[in-house]
Amino acid sequence: MLDTAKEYVTDLYRLFYPKLCGGCDIPLAKGEEHLCLHCRLELPFTNFETLKNNPVENIFRGRATLNFATSLLYFSSGEKTQHILHNIKYNNKRELAIYIGKVFGERLQNNPYLSSVTMLMPVPLHPQKEHLRGYNQSALIAEGINEMLQKKFSVNNLQRNIYTETQTKKTRVERWENVEKAFKLIRPKEILHQHILLIDDVLTTGSTLEACANVLHSEGCTVSIATVAFAVN
Q1: Is the sign of the CA dihedral 100, 106, 107, 110 positive or negative?
Q2: Cβ proximity of 111 and 72 under 8 Å
Q3: pLDDT-above-90 percentage for the chain
Q4: pTM for this model (two decimals)
Q5: Helix or strand (DSSP H, E) at 111
Q6: Which of 109, 157, 182, 211 has CB atoms 3.0–4.6 Å from 162's, for a disulfide?
Q7: At what angle do helices 137-149 and 94-108 cross, to 10 degrees?
Q8: pLDDT per residue over 131-152, tens digit each?
Q9: Under a CB-based contact definition with an 8 Å cutoff, are residues 57 and 69 in contact?
Q10: Cα–Cα nearest to 182, from 219, 214, 218, 224
């Protein structure tokens, strides 16, 4: 009887304050969480996690020494992936970020190219930007991934020490100049001989990830990269 009453109250609350799908903003049906069934079925998976020398790895060829690199979803302007990431970054959808991370983590489990990973590390935001937003979306995504992978988790060793300008309208060269010296390690000994999976939300030119990967590699660790989105021109 008590369970029935609780269910009735929950249904009534959802009627007036429905949870919305992170992919299309329609009210979620009973039993749905974070994404509606339609959006889950239409997620544009890249399937790069099954491919060596995939397009993500090719972006970094000659720029950073990587063990492996992959992205979960294709990203195109105005499409579903952009809407999901916009909700995560600007609409306080923290649980959606963790959920997407879990989806990613499930697809990375038992991946032979990542079998030696020992530590997960999100790309950091500058402290001022993180304070304004209230969270680092890449850290939340990494948290979701790590619920599936269960590795060491580092969120404050790699730090962004320069508040860089927005990258949105910059060329590849301008983006690299914007982040070239933006990152530093606080405790470099902690990553020595580790295989780090570096995690970010979206890959465009790769300048930020390149800068991070080079800092990590210079301190004696192996680096792989995983991003939620891979931008399609």
Answers
A1: positive
A2: no
A3: 82
A4: 0.87
A5: none
A6: 182
A7: 40
A8: 999 999 999 999 999 999 999 9
A9: yes
A10: 214
